[in-house]
Amino acid sequence: MSGLAIPELLNNYNVYNDAAKKLIGVSGEVELPDFEAITETLEGAGVMGEIEDAATGQFAAMSIKIPFSVLYEDMFTLVNPAKGTQVTLRGSMQVMDPTTAATDYQPVKVVIRGKCKKHSSGKMVKGKKMDASVELEILYIKIEVNNKSVIELDKLNFKYCVNGEDLLKKIRSQC
What we know:
Blueprint: E1 6-16, E2 37-43, E3 50-59, E4 63-68, E5 85-96, E6 103-120, E7 132-145, E8 148-154, E9 159-162, E10 165-166, H1 169-174
Antiparallel strand pairs: 1-5, 2-3, 4-7, 5-6, 6-7, 7-8, 8-9, 9-10
């Protein structure tokens, strides 16, 4: 594939627990978290009105909900709040070469470490999915696209990188 690829869709994905065991019971979609910066409003002399400015690397609480079709046994490897857990989402993004219209595929990987903050057993209806789920508080997240790290946030180890650039390096050296 020559140069720039046009991203089309996520062709498929799987979810793995920290033991690298595929979580077969995951259903539907997993919504990735928003990165909502903690901000402060600046105003005063020399500033026209107000400016909402983000504190570099500081983010509001983040969570991810992993849906399960039924009360799948491996779902419970994620629910112990006294123990952290890791979840890895591995996908294949379908892309198109704009010069040849050829289809290709690029890997997408999301690694999340956190703790269970909520789990739901769902409902019991004859002949239907149970819609069980586990919700994790995110303490660490790393997103890779085409084998390149695009975002890495480690809330407990004061690390925030965007496209491989460590945005907190200077702050760490001063604290």
